[in-house]
Amino acid sequence: MEERRIQEKREPRVARRGKVGMRSDKFQIIENIEAIDIGSEGESICKSGDLVVFVKGLVPGDVADVKITKSRKRFKTGKVLQIRKPSPERIEAPCAHFGNCGGCKWQNLQYHAQLHYKQKHVFDALTRIAGLHLVSYNGKVSPDNSSTVFFPILGSEEIYHYRNRMDYAFSSRRWLTPEEMEMGEIKEKRGLGFHLPGMFDKIIDVEFCHLQAEPGNQIRNTLRTYCLEQDLDFFDNRQRKGLMRGLIIRNSGLGELMVLVMFGEEGRKEEKENLLSFLKHTFPEITSLVFVTNTKGNETIFDLAVETFSGSDWIMESMEGLKFRIRPKSFFQTNPRQALALYRLVREWAELKGTETVYDLYSGTGTIGCFMAGNAGKIVGVEFTDASVTDARENAAMNGISNASFFAGDMKKILSAEFFSREGHPDVIITDPPRAGMEAPVTEAILNSGCPKIIYVSCNPATQARDLSILKEKYDVVRARPVDMFPQTSHVENVCLLTLKK
Asked: Which positions ≥6 away from 74 have C-beta within 8 Å?
């Protein structure tokens, strides 16, 4: 009798044909459940009756057997046991690391379907959170003031090799594949690649990444081999020690290449110089070889001194004849070709006549401000970090732009009536905040500014929709258009045009 109880406890409960029984055991198996949608974080949404299950690795239209791994009051999460019927939208992911690396969760979904679901995410956020009434653009629509024209998503011409920056981490404890675990004896536990989602001390040892053009993979793999041959210690995130900590590779459309090596320990000058000399001579195409020593608890370098080993401390990018210097700490759009399409959309919707005062909020290194300067009377950029503002001023000067001013500081403190009076009343406000959206005082300052036109660029449609629900008090949201900056991922940008109510 006791043996039978143990056996029953070990066997998971099965719900057949997508139906769930009265009990909701954690390790329950649901057969033939269909993925009907995909969430903003890239997990597919499966439904059986009133039960909602989030599952990684499925695409809408897949029918699969799913094992429940976590139970919550309103939903569950599960893992795929087997796909019974693949979706017509399913394709084979080209990356060998797909399913383990958390970077490209949509590689198994055809690109036209990726665009469909990204557009749907934006549409849902604007209707459900912002409460907007959206009408699709058909070339003839003339909505009233209560409607927003919703333009189709602007897809990316390049869906692979589009990134101009990749960040990698060294680890003394790489993630071991199930095959390696079965073999038992692991000869090498060091690795260089991406952090495993949810695990700060484990990285996936990457052999090939499809997001950045060569020589990115060659540099990473060659450096890993060198470090292993020299028996250099890889960083241990638990003990916070180890020489080799990180690698950043940046490239530009002008063919320039920056490599930043992050060391995790002070001293060891000879080992550092030997490694950097090896990179310099092995890859003569590197135009900027820099390094930083980071012994902190995180991998950010903004508060650290970056040193130049060879070449310059920057690489150059170009957009419509404008030149932009990108330094190790500079923020620059990681998909530059699609960024150009985004900036052109902003410029088109701004409809500048050449006399307007344009405020560029969250201006970063001044790319949008410089891009708009030739069509405006004056550009006023505001950004939190001093380093970005220094870059913005330098970029403006390098391009002969004399009608742009950039200010560093806390946005909610800078945007005051006195600032508007001194720098000029805004005719157009372009705001491109981080994923968290705009802080309440910034939204309030915009509302009080009485600016006739706002263009809101966002990398998070949910927080953008939240802000729009506040701005609706005085503004009509007249246009919206999603822009796909990050193919193979669930991330999407959205641009909204707002005009002051009459």
From this structure: 52
Q: Output the pLDDT for position 138.
A: 66
Sign for the CA dihedral angle at 73, 79, 85, 90 comes to positive
pLDDT at 218: 98
Catalytic positions, please?
459
Q: How far apart are CA 401 and CA 266, in angstroms?
A: 42
The owner of tokens 């090896």 is 278
Where b means 16+ CB within 10 Å and e means fewer, 342-375 reads: bbebbbebbebeeebbbbbbbbbbbbbbbbbbbb
Query: What is the spatial distance between Cα 489 and Cα 466, in angstroms, rounded to a whole number?
Result: 23
Closest by CA position to 82, among listed 118, 127, 30, 142: 30
Q: What pLDDT digit, counting tens, does each position of 234-279 carry?
A: 999 888 899 999 999 999 999 999 999 999 999 999 999 999 999 9
Query: 67 or 145: whose pLDDT is higher?
Result: 67
> So what's the pLDDT on residue 4?
34
Under a CB-based contact definition with an 8 Å cutoff, are residues 453 and 476 in contact?
A: no
> Rounded to the nearest 10 degrees, what angle do helices 461-471 and 111-128 cross at?
30
| DSSP element (H, E) containing 401 | none
- Residue 12 clears pLDDT 60, i.e. is over it: no
Q: Averaged over 154-158, what is the pLDDT?
A: 97
CA distance 4 to 11: 11
Highest mean pLDDT among 100-109, 383-392, 472-481: 472-481
Predicted local confidence at residue 1, as pLDDT: 37
The three-state secondary structure class of 434 is: coil
> What is the CB-side half-sphere exposure of residue 453 using CA atoms within 13 A?
16
Burial class (CB in 10 A: 0-12, 13-18, 19+), 313: middle
Residue 452 contacts residue 499 (beta carbons within 8 Å): yes
Q: Are 196 and 189 in contact (CB under 8 A)?
A: no
What is the spatial distance between Cα 191 and Cα 175, in angstroms, rounded to a whole number? 8
Contact 288, 257 (CB under 8 A): yes
Task: Give backbone dihedrals phi and psi of 475, rounded to 5 degrees, phi first.
Answer: -125, 145
Helix crossing, 269-282 with 216-229: angle to 10°? Answer: 140
Alpha-carbon gap, residue 477 to 132, rounded angstroms: 8
Amino acid identity of residue 194, one-letter, is: F
Tell me which residue of 339, 361, 332, 382 sits closest to 454, measured CA to CA. Answer: 361
> Is residue 328 a contact partner of residue 165, using CB atoms and an 8 Å limit?
no
Widest CA span in the chain = 88
